[in-house]
Write a sequence for this structure.
């Protein structure tokens, strides 16, 4: 063997040419190996050191500390950090002022920091929990493979495989690298995980004449696929990241995921709040400076504290934490529906999806080949039931079950009986973890489907026969024949054959009609060919069945003209098919297809009702793809699949025009899937991409939300996704859409509540300072600026009395009505102009009633206090602040009831959310505590209120609810007028 120093192929281990276009002798020479002996152990060790292990390189794991710090990368958090810094600076300056009021610790700053830490911990723990759930779904992979080294077959770790190794394949093996085949025996490989092709591919070592797509490279094997039948040997041409799977993994590393719509919207809201805080603070300080002037350093410090108060009032400190908790609760509910979300911010995104791009094999279909139709000489019948469970009925074209004495049932039994005997597959019954029976296939899924069909109608007779000899299926022969001894009939021999109907038909001279065998006519042949074409046009894979009794022969040497040893060596017999495969009797044919999941059609219809377009993208045949898409309601009858070759010719506007209309794509490569997703995203769609195979991974990662299959999905795809379906069920996606929309609605509710409440706080501070002289707000001992509410009081409202109701709103359970509307436009904001109007309207009301309540307790204001409160003649700023503090809390509690809908009355479904009422009660108790517990009085600058003040606070704050209800009446009327106008226009 040539040493490594003479190797002429690339330093990466790849060949300079496409190995499928090279003769295997040339591949052997180029890779300096031996098909007869393989590499030597020493040479393999040298190559392993040079080319590295046969593994996919993933991104290095993110350290836990870095994951924790990533939780702080949020614009809302930045605002809170800025407020903390200002508050801390003000605390230092104030404590160093001579004669100033000392504060032992910076309470405001510490509280905000605590909120930030709590939010980060919650986000980190939830995402870690999701990662653990995904890891738990990881499937075991075959760690070793058989290779020829030093002239002997040995098993090695797949990681030790190197270019030039001779890979020895057998049925059931998972292929660990890419390779060029040079020897096969009935070799068939399932490549669905890479190409999307649902039917195992028959392999042949012949050199290809021209370059072909992965699915058509029949002389190649690929990493991650599996052998379903036969044996073979191949020269390993590439390993690790240089395999087809590795190239896809490299594409994933280059394609970084962007922000989710929710992240973008929250960043926008945070930016608006930040700008608003700065503008309001500058405006207030400027007005104060020009109207009153700053006469001392203390006035400057008071202005700085006012800025902190405005920042605290404007920024809902608990928003980030509440958002995290609401998303986490949504994640838990989705997990109950078998949808595991790996990233919190992605929970809402699926609810916004306008297009779901789905792989076919294993996602929309069961990835279990099934016999659906049988064509025998007397007519066509249908077999119900899907998958490998042998449960179903034989029916006619009207769906009526065919009786036992009907000739069609007899012929169907013959067809399936022959197919189950000329068969190398096995159907195995097992028990799952819950004790429920489940059926699994061993071998070629197509062959197993025939066994299942035979069992359904009682045609399985394998126990009566034992195999004597075999002429195996090859890609050139396109048929398989077996010689069986009938143990129930004195061991007489029979031939059973199956294969491509047009090929097998050439070896048949007779036909079995109604239990009688007669010569086959030319008309019979034409009818059979027409039936083959009809089944093919319906996207069925056809398989013909034939048989032949070998007279009274009890051994192979008794067959006329056999001239072979009576031992019946199958290998020797395979060299003489002309002896066995002649004068056969045509029994009929079956139509086989990978059937759609039974529940998917309803889910597709539900998604369509919700305004979501479902698109099928597969590597399968265009005819098969169009048939499945039509059956599921994804495509209209007659709609043809767009092929990968057609996509290659389209770019820009032409591509976008095609993807805007197409519902089914076939014969596509990974780069085509990525191209489709990008095109749909350019059209302002929120794209969800589902998939299970390695070929789906780039598009899954590129989509707005990638959905991987948890059972059949490859690890590459799972790690690329944002959500994993634990049950591989497309219907789970619709449930996730419903949950996502409900989460979005809940987010809008508590955003409306929090922002309108904070707007009320801002307006209270803003108007209270500017109108201090009008309402009698002053500090008797000084002439400086006096704020109506302290920063710590505003923090109390935001963190405690606001937080519980907002969180309860996030737990509202939405019904199916959320699927009765189209998905929101990607350009629409969570907080639109109308919602901002609602926020400002409520904020003004809250500020007005709060300041009015304070004026009741302040002499010299707008209201004649002596007429209403003779006992409150003395100036008491703390009492007035406590009253305003309490009224503001109460207005926000009433606002919580009103904020559950922008237009719907608060009195409709008022008591459906028990958590909200519990939260309101908790907030009331907390407010009473801060007013009547002495040490809390000191911390928050409050004093106990007389009993009548509670009635006044309740009456004034309820105005918020009543005026909001009046506004909703107007909005509902306007919506009805718009709907009526739109109906007339249509």
């Amino acid at each position: 063997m040539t040493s490594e120093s003479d190797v002429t192929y690339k330093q990466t281990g790849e060949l300079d040419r496409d190995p499928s276009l090279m003769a295997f002798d040339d591949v052997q020479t180029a890779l300096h190996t031996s098909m007869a002996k393989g590499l030597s152990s020493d040479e393999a060790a040298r190559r392993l050191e040079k080319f590295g292990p046969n593994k996919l390189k993933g991104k290095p794991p993110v350290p836990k500390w870095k994951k924790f710090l990533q939780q702080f990368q949020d614009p809302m958090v930045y605002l809170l950090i800025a407020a903390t810094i200002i508050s801390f600076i003000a605390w230092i300056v104030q404590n160093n002022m001579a004669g100033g009021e000392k504060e032992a610790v910076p309470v405001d700053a510490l509280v905000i920091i605590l909120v930030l830490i709590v939010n980060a911990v919650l986000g980190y723990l939830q995402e870690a929990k999701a990662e653990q759930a995904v890891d738990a779904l990881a499937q075991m992979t075959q760690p070793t493979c058989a290779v020829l080294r030093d002239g002997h077959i040995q098993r090695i770790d797949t990681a030790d495989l190197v270019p030039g190794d001779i890979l020895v394949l057998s049925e059931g093996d998972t292929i660990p690298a890419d390779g060029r085949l040079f020897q096969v025996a009935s070799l068939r490989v399932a490549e669905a995980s890479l190409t999307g092709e649902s039917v195992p591919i028959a392999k042949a070592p012949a050199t290809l004449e021209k370059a072909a797509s992965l699915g058509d490279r029949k002389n190649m094997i690929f990493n991650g696929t599996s052998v379903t039948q036969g044996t073979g040997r191949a020269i390993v041409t590439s390993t690790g990241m240089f395999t087809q799977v590795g190239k896809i993994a490299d594409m994933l590393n280059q394609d970084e995921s962007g922000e989710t719509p929710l992240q973008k919207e929250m960043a926008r809201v945070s930016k608006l709040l930040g700008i608003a805080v700065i503008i309001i603070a500058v405006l207030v300080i400027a007005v104060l400076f020009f109207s009153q002037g700053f006469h001392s350093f203390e006035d400057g410090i008071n202005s700085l504290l006012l800025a902190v108060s405005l920042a605290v009032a404007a920024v809902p400190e608990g928003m980030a934490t509440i958002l995290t908790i609401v998303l986490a609760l949504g994640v838990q509910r989705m997990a109950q529906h078998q949808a595991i979300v790996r990233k919190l911010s992605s929970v809402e995104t699926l609810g916004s999806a306008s297009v779901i791009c789905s792989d076919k094999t294993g996602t929309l279909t069961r990835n279990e080949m099934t016999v659906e139709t049988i064509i025998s000489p007397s007519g066509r019948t249908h077999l119900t039931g899907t998958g490998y469970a042998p449960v179903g009925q034989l029916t006619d074209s009207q769906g009526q079950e065919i009786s036992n004495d009907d000739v069609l049932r007899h012929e169907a039994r013959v067809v399936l009986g022959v197919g189950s005997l000329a068969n190398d597959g096995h159907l195995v019954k097992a028990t799952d973890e819950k004790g429920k029976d489940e059926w699994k296939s061993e071998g070629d899924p197509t062959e197993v489907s025939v066994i299942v069909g035979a069992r359904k109608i009682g045609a399985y007779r394998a126990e009566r026969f034992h195999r004597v000899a075999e002429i195996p299926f090859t890609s050139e022969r396109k048929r398989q024949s077996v010689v069986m001894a009938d143990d129930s009939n004195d061991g007489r021999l029979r031939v059973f054959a199956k294969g491509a109907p047009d090929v097998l038909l050439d070896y048949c001279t007779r036909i079995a009609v109604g239990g009688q065998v007669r010569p086959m006519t030319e008309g019979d042949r034409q009818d059979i060919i027409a039936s083959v074409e009809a089944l093919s046009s319906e996207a069925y894979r056809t398989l013909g069945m034939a048989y032949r009794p070998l007279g009274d022969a009890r051994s192979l040497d008794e067959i006329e003209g056999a001239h072979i040893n009576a031992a019946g060596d199958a290998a020797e017999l395979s060299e003489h098919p002309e002896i066995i495969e002649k004068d056969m009797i045509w029994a009929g044919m079956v139509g086989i297809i990978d059937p759609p999941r039974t529940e998917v059609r309803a889910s597709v219809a539900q998604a369509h009702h919700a305004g979501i377009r479902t698109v099928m993208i597969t590597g399968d045949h265009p005819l098969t793809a169009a048939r499945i898409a039509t059956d599921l309601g994804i495509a209209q009858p007659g709609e043809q699949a767009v092929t990968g070759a057609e996509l290659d010719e389209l770019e820009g506007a032409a591509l976008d025009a095609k993807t805007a209309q197409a519902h089914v794509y076939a014969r596509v490569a990974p780069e085509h899937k990525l191209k489709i997703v990008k095109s749909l995203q350019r059209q302002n769609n929120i794209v969800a991409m589902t998939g299970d195979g390695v070929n789906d991974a780039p598009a899954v990662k590129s989509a707005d939300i990638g959905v991987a299959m948890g059972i059949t999905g490859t690890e590459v795809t799972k790690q690329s996704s944002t959500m994993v379906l634990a049950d591989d069920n497309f219907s789970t996606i619709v449930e996730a859409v419903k949950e996502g929309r409900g989460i979005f609605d809940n987010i809008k509710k508590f955003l409306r509540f929090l922002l309108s409440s904070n707007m009320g706080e801002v307006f209270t501070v803003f108007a209270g300072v500017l109108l201090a002289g009008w309402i009698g707000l002053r500090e008797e001992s000084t002439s400086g600026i006096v704020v109506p509410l302290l920063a710590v009081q505003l923090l109390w409202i935001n963190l405690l009395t606001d937080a519980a109701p907002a969180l309860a709103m996030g737990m509202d359970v939405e019904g199916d009505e959320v699927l009765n509307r189209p998905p929101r436009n990607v350009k629409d904001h969570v907080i639109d102009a109308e919602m901002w109007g609602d926020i400002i309207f409520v904020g003004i009301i809250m500020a007005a009633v709060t300041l009015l309540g304070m004026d009741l307790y302040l002499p010299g204001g707008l209201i004649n206090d002596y007429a209403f409160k003779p006992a409150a003649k003395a100036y008491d700023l703390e009492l007035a602040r406590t009253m305003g503090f309490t009224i503001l809390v109460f207005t926000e509690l009433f606002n919580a009831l009103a904020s559950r809908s922008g237009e719907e009355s608060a009195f409709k479904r008022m008591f459906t959310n028990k958590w909200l009422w519990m939260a309101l009660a908790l907030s009331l108790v907390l407010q009473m505590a801060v007013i009547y517990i002495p040490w809390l009085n000191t911390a928050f600058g409050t004093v106990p209120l007389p009993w009548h003040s509670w009635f006044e606070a309740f009456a004034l704050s309820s105005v918020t609810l009543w005026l909001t209800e009046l506004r909703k009446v107007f909005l509902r009327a306007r919506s009805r007028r718009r709907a009526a106008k739109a109906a007339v226009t249509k």
In short: The radius of gyration is 38 Å. Residues 1-8, 137-142, 566-570 have pLDDT under 50 and may be disordered. Residues 107 and 792 are 7 Å apart (CA to CA). The chain has 35 helices and 27 strands.
